[in-house]
Every structure is written in structure tokens, then in C-alpha cells.
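Encode chain A's predicted structure.
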Amino acid sequence: MNIPNNSYNTKEISIYLNHSFYSKSSIIKTLYWYSDRFIFQFNTKNEYFHLILNPIEELELEEMEKLFHLLNRDFLDFQLRQVIHEETKNIRDLITAKAFSNGQLDEIPNGDISDPVGFITK
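Encoded structure for chain A:
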């Protein structure tokens, strides 16, 4: 298996992200946050998304290195956010249904209104 190398220099950042791990939507969401600094090329190569980011303004190599590492961290961050969003969808739907149920799903609490937990014994 030939894994392409990610790279950066003063003119561009080149990143390959595997289709099986990163979703296109999480990549686009990440790139949005860098749209004030870069112009993007988004290509598909075999099982990889190939991203080429060219800075709008000329940047030093140290700044490109810093942004390269931030980008890689943010790609992972947005992918994780998407996974969490998908895994918690049912819980969010239940909470929303409960919030708008107009009391239809409410249970009658045990105990007296003055002692709802039942601490006072008679």
C-alpha cells in the first residue's frame, strides 16, 4: 500500500486524508475556518482526499509549519465532532421530544409535594 506523504513549504500545504476515516463534510467544515488564509484545491485520488492549500498572503516557513500542524489537529477534531453528533442523535431527539411533549410523557412523582424525595417519614 502506497501512502502519500503530507508536506508543506512556503508556497503550499499538501495533505492526504483517507476516505475511510475522514468524511468530506468534516473536511469542508475544517477548511472553512482557514478560508481567510488559504485558497483550496480539493481532489480525490484513489482512497484519499488530496488537499492543496495555497496561502493568500506570503507566509514564512515557520508559520506554514504551525498551520500545517493546526490543520491536521483540526481535521481530527471536526471528524470526532461528526462521530459524536451521529452517535448522540437519538438522545438529542428524545430530549427534544420530551421538551415539546406538553407534559404527556411526564411521570407522577413519588411522595408528597412538600417532600418529593421522601425524606420525611410519617
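Residues 72 and 82 are 16 Å apart (CA to CA).
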